[in-house]
Design brief:
InterPro entries (chain A): Actin, Actin_CS, ATPase_NBD
CATH topology of one domain in chain A: Nucleotidyltransferase, domain 5
Organism (chain A): Gigaspora rosea
Protein name (chain A): Actin family
Radius of gyration of chain B: 15 Å
Oligomer: heterodimer
Helix content of chain A: 25-40%
CATH class of chain B: Alpha Beta
Shape of chain A: globular
Structural class of chain A: alpha+beta
CATH architecture of chain B: 3-Layer(aba) Sandwich
Radius of gyration of chain A: 22 Å
Largest sheet of chain B: 6 strands, mixed
Family (chain A): Belongs to the actin family.
Number of strands of chain B: 6
Number of helices of chain A: 15
Number of helices of chain B: 4
Helix content of chain B: 25-40%
CATH architecture of one domain in chain A: 2-Layer Sandwich
Structural class of chain B: alpha/beta
Keywords (chain B): Actin-binding
Largest sheet of chain A: 6 strands, mixed
Strand order of the largest sheet of chain A: 3-2-1-7-8-19
Strand content of chain A: 15-25%
Strand order of the largest sheet of chain B: 1-3-2-4-5-6
Number of domains of chain B: 1
């Protein structure tokens, strides 16, 4: 069998998340390219636009659960990563991709097929995100809470294998919080004008109306406008929002210092209790969710993240539960909200009296945001990993079904 | 397949384990992934004939600093009301302050050695000193039957 890895040819590692795509070379500590998993296209042509601009329609690729209609979009992301960002010829490299724990056999086979048929890669491997995150913290057994952009998921990993019956996931994560913040702003009569619309702003006192000159952008699409608004909200979320570290108590929270945020148009105001309200959704969804404008969104069935961890662990064999509770890994950008880890710890201690609970949340932001990419990068660079790749010959002999056999 | 990383365990690992298990020749064994450039194999690091649990723990959490190891300890204990008992305890020791590269390597290669050590009764996954305390291991051993 041909051998790969080592010093000869470095493998490419691709992690297409629901918000960010990470791409780079195996063996490196950080991905060479990190870009949004979104692309713009021009309405008439329906082709990907070379530059994302006001007249392009923004489309987010739902990589957590690609449906048939998203495959073209996913291929565009791969194209962009390999061709434009890494500027490599995929036929000269093995390709390592990460995937959601709940991917079906059909999706995995399709990924394999695209890799070999369209990109003609030398060799291919696909590994599950939570397994890579667990390994990267030195733990073959752990429960991985991944709170990212579109999905929050909780997955038990035992001896390096995902226990499918313990997978819990729901669409309440960073993106949903941003939408809710948008609704909160509407209630507060705050208008979010994104940076691209602002020609000139003037410094104003707190809570005074903005004094601003707008740019005229008549052909802007609604989706581009929303995409840019969400960027502002994202910044707000990262700099102002916080999770209260124990049971939500408005009186206590009201005594906390307020935080000021300046919007792109110069309007600035301070947020007190409000900056805790939306993150509280992660722990008490039925009570704190404002009716979202998403059809078929069932607020009542959403769980707090601590409840997801509890359910996930409870679905596993009783012998392994103490070990799982002692090895809870937090990953994904939304877990970086201040207070998040303390709150998870607090809630679980309340639910599980006397059980030992230990959270592991890498302090290093790269490790937290890119843990599965990093895990893949290390694994794919190991000299011994060459036996595990699906080679082109194996694919040609056995077809895409080989992925189920080789990438457990 | 040997393990998620492709790393496998050398024959010597098993031979030394048999000497511990059957002949009680050793008190504990440490295994490591070889230091050669390509790090392909789990090999014997050392086997001690006499040692207390504390001495063993001090090697793991002290002497080795941040280096991960796999280990087997021949654990004697007293079961209340039932007298002296003995269990073989397997350790996957990957300290939290180790480099991410070695953490990934050791965690993804554990199966290669663990699956070959037939007769191990208890498995300990250690990432901080508290998890390999005598009391923590004893509790685990007593909970099993």
């Amino acid at each position: 069998m041909a051998t790969f890895g080592g010093d000869e040819v470095s493998a490419l590692v691709l992690d297409v998340g629901s918000c960010w795509t990470r791409a780079g070379y195996a063996g490196e500590d950080t991905p060479k390219a990190v870009f949004p998993t979104s692309y713009g296209y021009i309405a008439e042509a329906e082709t990907a636009a070379p530059n994302i601009d006001e007249d392009t329609i923004m489309k987010n690729v739902d990589s957590d659960a690609p449906k048939v209609q998203d495959w073209d979009a996913l291929e565009k992301i791969w194209d962009h990563a390999l061709d434009k960002r890494l500027q490599v010829d995929p036929t000269e490299h093995p390709l390592f991709v990460t995937e959601a724990a709940w991917n079906t056999r059909e999706i995995r086979e399709k990924l394999t097929e695209i890799a070999f048929e369209k990109y003609r890669v030398l060799a291919f491997y696909v590994a599950k995100n939570p397994v890579l995150s667990a390994f990267a913290t030195g733990r073959p057994t752990a429960v991985v809470l991944d709170c990212g952009h579109s999905t929050t998921s909780c997955v038990p990993v035992v001896d390096g294998y995902v226990l499918k019956k313990g997978i819990y996931k729901q669409p309440v994560a960073g993106d949903f919080l941003s939408e809710q913040i948008m609704q909160q702003f509407q209630k507060l009569n705050i208008n979010v004008e994104p940076h691209y619309l602002i020609a000139k702003k003037t410094v104003v006192e707190a809570d005074q109306p903005a004094v601003v000159v707008y740019r005229d952008r008549p052909n802007t699409t609604e989706s581009y406008h929303k995409y840019m608004q969400m960027r502002v909200i994202h910044e707000f979320k990262e700099s102002v929002c916080q999770v209260f570290e124990s049971t939500y108590n408005e009186l206590v929270i009201a005594a906390r210092p307020m935080k000021t945020f300046e919007f792109p148009d110069g309007f600035n105001t301070s947020f007190g209790v409000q900056r805790f309200d939306v993150p509280e959704i992660l722990f008490n969804p039925p009570k704190f969710i404002m009716q979202p404008d998403r059809p078929s969104f069932d607020t009542k069935s959403m769980l707090g993240v601590h409840q997801m961890i509890y359910n996930s662990v409870s679905a596993c064999d009783i012998d392994v539960r103490p070990l799982l509770l002692n090895n809870i890994i937090l990953t994904g950008g939304t877990t970086l909200l201040p207070g998040f880890a303390d709150r998870v710890n607090y809630e679980l201690s309340m639910m599980l009296h006397g059980m030992k609970i230990k959270l592991h949340a890498p302090g290093n932001t790269i490790e937290r945001k890119c843990s599965s990419w990093l895990g893949g990068s290390i694994l794919a660079s190991l000299g011994t990993f060459h036996q595990l790749w699906i080679s082109r010959k194996e694919y040609e002999d056995q077809g895409a079904m080989i992925v189920e056999k080789k990438c457990e | 397949m040997s393990s998620s990383s492709g790393v496998s365990a050398s024959d010597e690992c098993m031979e030394v384990f048999q000497d511990l298990k059957l002949k009680k020749k050793y008190k504990y064994i440490l295994y490591k992934i070889n230091d050669s450039k390509d790090r392909t194999e789990i090999v014997l690091d050392r086997a001690e004939e006499k040692a207390s649990y504390e001495e063993f723990k001090n090697v793991l959490v002290g002497e080795l600093n941040v280096d991960p190891r796999y280990a087997v300890f021949d654990f004697d204990y007293e079961k209340p009301g039932e007298g002296q008992r003995n269990k073989l305890v397997f350790f996957s020791w990957v300290p939290d302050n180790a480099r991410v590269h070695t953490k990934m390597l050791y965690a993804s290669s554990k199966d290669a050695i663990r699956k070959k050590l037939v007769g191990v009764g208890i498995e300990v996954q250690g990432t901080d000193p508290e998890e390999v305390d005598y009391s923590a291991v004893l509790e685990k051993v007593l909970r099993s039957n």
